[in-house]
Design a protein that fits this description.
Elements: E1 10-11, E2 18-19, H1 21-29, H2 36-56, H3 61-106
Antiparallel strand pairs: 1-2
Helix pairs in contact: 2-3
């Protein structure tokens, strides 16, 4: 059974490494500003949750690893809807540009 919106990660043709959703969007758009989401996901959420699990919940070294896992999951929960909205906007803009180019070519 396939989950409708879930797509397995794909390999980057240049490096052969697997990419996640946010990295794929950053590579697709070619805009380095979009890569900030990946940085926020990987650094901010992971560090905050690792700190919380380690010191606040007193889990020690295990808390670091659980914090990284939870941080990546939470970051992904923020990134996935953003990526879908961003890509749908790109798709609608490209559709508008195609319609305009057809009108210009027809004149």
């Amino acid at each position: 059974m396939r989950i409708p919106f879930f797509q397995p990660t794909k390999k980057d043709s240049r490096t052969g490494c697997r990419t996640d959703t946010t990295e794929g969007v950053a590579l697709l758009t070619g805009d380095p500003k979009k890569a900030i989401l990946t940085i926020m996901q990987s650094l901010v959420f992971a560090i905050l949750f690792a700190y919380a699990f380690t010191f606040i919940f007193r889990m020690g070294e295990t808390g670091i690893w659980w914090g990284m896992v939870v941080g990546e999951i939470v970051g992904g929960l923020f990134a996935f809807p953003w990526a879908r909205v961003y890509l749908s906007r790109l798709n609608s803009q490209s559709g508008e540009e195609l319609a305009i180019s057809k009108q210009v070519a027809g004149q």
